[in-house]
Structure formats: C-alpha cells, structure tokens
Amino acid sequence: MDHIDAVRTPASWVVVGLDNGGTCNNATVLDATGQFLVDQLVENPSLVQEGPESAVESLARAFTGILDLTSTPLSLVRAVGLDTPGPASADGVISSKGSTNFSQVSWHGFDIRGALESRLGLPVVYANDANAAALYAHHRHFGTTAMENSSVAAIVGTGLGGGVVESGKVVSGAAGMAGELGHVQIPLHGVLEDGQPIPLCNCGFEGDVESIASLTGIAKNLLPYWLTRFPDHPLAAEPLGRAAKLLRGYGEKQDPLALAVFGQQARAIGKLFTIAANFTDPAAYFLGGGVVEAAPHFRQWFLDTVREHTQLRREQRAAATFALVPDLDMAGARGAAVAALDTVPV
C-alpha cells in the first residue's frame, strides 16, 4: 500500500465513487488507468431521511458492496469520491440551513465527508452532485486531452445545478460555491413574453436561470403563466407540481404549451452560456438533467435551441462544441471517482 507505481496499470490501485441521492446511493470503481470496472447502475437505499448516522452506514454498505461486486480487495483502494446534492461547503459540510434532501435538523451543518472518512478509514474527496456530473462529462468528452481543456455544464433538475471545469478540474471557489450557475441572473429580453411576470427563484433572486430552467421554475413561474394562454389544456386540471412533472411527456409529443415552456428554458440556458462564453470561453458546453433523459428527438431539439441562443463570436463557434451529459444516471458516481483519482499521487 505504501508503494506507488511509477507506471499506472489496471492492477495498481483503484478509487471508489459514491453518489448520494435522496432515495439511492450509486457506486462505481475506477482503476489507476482511468477505466471504470462497472458499466451499470449499482444502487442501494440512501436512507438520508433517517438521519446522518443511518445515511453514513448506508454509504459504507455501498462501498463494501461495490468492492464485492467487482472482486476488488480493500487494500487496493487509495481514495473515495463522494458527491451529494447541495448546498454544502467545498469540504462536504451540509448547509447550516439544511436542504431538500437533508431537511432534518440533525443534518444541518453535518460534515458528511468527514463522517464517511472516519467510517471507512480512507481519504474521502467531496464534490456536489452537479459538479461531479460536470467533471465526468468533461473527462468522457475530452478523454486524454481533458487536462488541457475547459467546459461549462448546466444540469436541469428540481433546481439548476452546474459546473465549471478548467484544465480538467472543477473550479470550486473560495467558499466552495463556484459553478452555482442556477443563480446567475440573465437578461430576460428574448426569453419572456411581453407581459409575462418576472420569474422568482427560491433563493430570493429575480430572473436567475433556475427561476426558468428547472422543475421548480416550471411549477412556480412558467406553467401558471402559460396556462392562462392555454386555458383548455389538460394540464390545467392537474395540481401545478404534478403538471410540471408531466410536461416533458407533452413536449415529446410536440404539444404547443410544452414547447413554449421548454423553449423558454432553452433560451435561458443560451443566455447563461453566452455569459460563460464571455467569462471563461470554454471549449465545450454540456447540458444534462431531465431533458437528457427524454426522447432523442426532443432532447436534440432542446440542445439545438440552446445552441441557437448562445451568442458566440465566429472564432468561438469554430472552437467550441455543445453536447449532452452522457450516462446521466451514473455521471455523479463516475465524476466523484474522477475527482478522487486526481488526488492520488503518482
């Protein structure tokens, strides 16, 4: 274990990636050469609603389970990558106000990274789930040139997560809050209709990306407006929260109301990527989340609409690519593993 191979081989050592979610953990193993040893979801219940003690034990079970599944000796594990939903500090301390997944008081200010590190007796590296997905998308897309490239990723879910990757590494920031792309305020001209109310975000901002491009934004801001324009729509009879979740199915069927809503989301992300183009000028723009899990024709339409509304200079358009986050259900665990791999000395 003390010996570090000068040349990495698949048998040299491994890192483990653990993705902690609201209902399940997902685990993976990455060898020293950057090859994943599993190519499917490997899940167990996350038990986060039972509090930190149960949740940390469940993560430990996910760790031992993935080693058993891949016949990997514990002695080969050099580090563990952990990702969770935020908000949390760069060191994996859950916000003092908790969050959607970590709502119990026992979670407020809880050091989930440190607790897992103590439980496993191995170094644990932390990333939030959107950063982990962004990191995996970057490394999957660029491969051997990942460390020479930069990217920005927007992950559309209940909120809007994101990640900024520079020279192959996530930019975390002084307080660990870099890449909170959902809370970037954008110009609303060309996004909203005349007379459409300014969207409000749960964070208190007006007109940030998450207030439009998220499930919460649909239910809170977009659907209430568009249902006034389509009062006879079947979704008008549904509670807003349920209607928001059903909307993607209508979008896949080219429903006019749904396309109006998702068109606004795509234009909002285009505005965000335009800001990114002038701020970091990335080599790639990645899009992930529920829209990626949709029917191929719909997700391609959405990505094309984002691209059309990202205002790039001619030189940037020639240099940059737009792509979907691959293997989205496994992206968190895989990105967490990539982050851990990067910390192992060679």
From TrEMBL:
Annotated Pfam families: ROK
Membrane-spanning segments: none
InterPro entries in UniProt: ATPase_NBD (IPR043129), ROK (IPR000600), ROK_cs (IPR049874)
Family: Belongs to the ROK (NagC/XylR) family.
Protein name per Swiss-Prot or TrEMBL: Glucokinase
Organism: Winogradskya consettensis
